[in-house]
Amino acid sequence: MAYPDHVLIKEVGPRDGLQNEKSFLPTEKKVEWINELSESGLNYIEITSFVNPKWIPALADCYEVATQIKRKPGVTYAALVPNMKGLEKAMEADVDEVAVFMSASDTHSKKNINKTIDETLPVLSETVREARSAGKKVRGYLSTVFGCPYEGDVSGEEVLRITDRLLEMGVYEVSLGDTIGVGNPVQVETSLNHWTSRINPEYLALHFHNTRGMALANTLVGLKAGIHTYDGALGGLGGCPYAKGASGNVATDDLVYMLHEMGIQTGADLSRLAQAGRFIEEALGKPLDSHYMEVIRAGE
Amino acid sequence: MAYPDHVLIKEVGPRDGLQNEKSFLPTEKKVEWINELSESGLNYIEITSFVNPKWIPALADCYEVATQIKRKPGVTYAALVPNMKGLEKAMEADVDEVAVFMSASDTHSKKNINKTIDETLPVLSETVREARSAGKKVRGYLSTVFGCPYEGDVSGEEVLRITDRLLEMGVYEVSLGDTIGVGNPVQVETSLNHWTSRINPEYLALHFHNTRGMALANTLVGLKAGIHTYDGALGGLGGCPYAKGASGNVATDDLVYMLHEMGIQTGADLSRLAQAGRFIEEALGKPLDSHYMEVIRAGE
Predict the structure, then answer these.
(1) Signal peptide span per the entry (chains A, B) (predicted)?
(2) Number of A–B residue contacts, CB under 8 Å
(3) Which residues of B are identified as catalytic?
(4) Chain B neighbors of A216, CB-CB under 8 A
(5) What is the per-residue pLDDT across B225-244, written as a single tens digit (0 to 9) for each?
(6) CATH code at position A151
(7) Considering CB atoms only, which of A187, A240, A263 is closest to B186?
């Protein structure tokens, strides 16, 4: 299959990136960063998570962030919601769309949200129904699709079963997450061939982590499998707390750089992404770990 | 084209990695590191460069390193030689094989060795002839094949012309180098399709730098193009002096990890590579920049 002309990048840095930060980034810094991202040509930004602040204190200001950002026409501002309670708060803040999430591994699911897969499905079903009846589109995240930190291998049939269920609920797209960055190109190719033989790739997105450096290689495989939507976090934010660079999301800037060099459009402006990168580096007081930001620093 | 069952990794860390280090690594540390690498299952190690120490002071002890290492049967110990003078010293030290190098860009060539491409060819021709008449195999490096820091684009026809000339001289393999890490997967695929339509891919190797994070993605493309020999430097040594990680060789350990996960054999033992990685981290007093070493540190 040929590469597509255009790829949609979904920026998850303000949610998936910041949720792992140990220190609380002040609300005005979050707002200003999202405003910077809005000017970078990205047209989808997941801005926060409406989850109990007991679980993710770093995003306790979800409502304030969602209501204080400047919304740029043409940009979709999404937020993660774990359940009805989160959805209600997200609706109050009037986000453009919401995302629900679950795991493809029972053990990971129980450790993460204290529910099994089959206990989670009805919770999400209710949430998706309610969101849609209020006119909101809903995205789904399915994590650990290429491997679980507790169980190791994850069943491809189980990934299919859950993806089918999420789509049946009314989710418009399922973002398949390599949560711990263990998927290798052969596995990703084999899995995607399996999954896309039963599910239209237009309903799938890929969410890679670059833990072992394979995210861009896996992106090539995803493109060849006909998947045209990719999640990224600016500068590879979302790293493991134990080691710099050890488990962040694939860096949006590295992803955009590669795609543009390949002649694939994303709509993003790399120099504006770098500007947003420098802003968050300063706000967090540490350098971002992406190759693109490192190359820029080397040239300065 | 399907992936191969086996890939040959050529470790260039002791030469291409260490030549960029600012502080002089003591000879006994170099020797001990190479001895560690010899026990990792790698069967090709480029140990040093017999170049005027005025140009690369970090490798001024090339003769001592070559004569003091413990040579493990089955491992090929190679050294870079720029000309007849370097070759003579390398022959005295009885390295197993030698490598000659040149650039595919005239400006890079002049800045690097003060000779144009066409001035370099006869120098290498003489060196290759002499080495082969003494029974030594000779490898060729061609740098900047996917882009030049001074000229930008590099002509694919010029790469072919020089590669042909090197093979005609008697070089058994040309390692095509993405010296500044700018090659993208579409460019690499297009270029390799062009080059392998005229040159048997068995005579080609790929030498990627991970400056912009695309080295493993480009490796996938190389494998699909039928190229089965890849250069790497343990831990991604060989970085730019200005910024951590900004222009190192692709990390041997990340390359081996991905290949093994893909079911492709290399003969290398990752735990022994990690041991050699920890040794050189301690000797240099800094952490290595590869994903594999970072994952190991995160788990410790």
Answers:
(1) none
(2) 114
(3) 240
(4) 213-214, 216-217
(5) 999 999 999 999 986 544 44
(6) 3.20.20.70
(7) A263
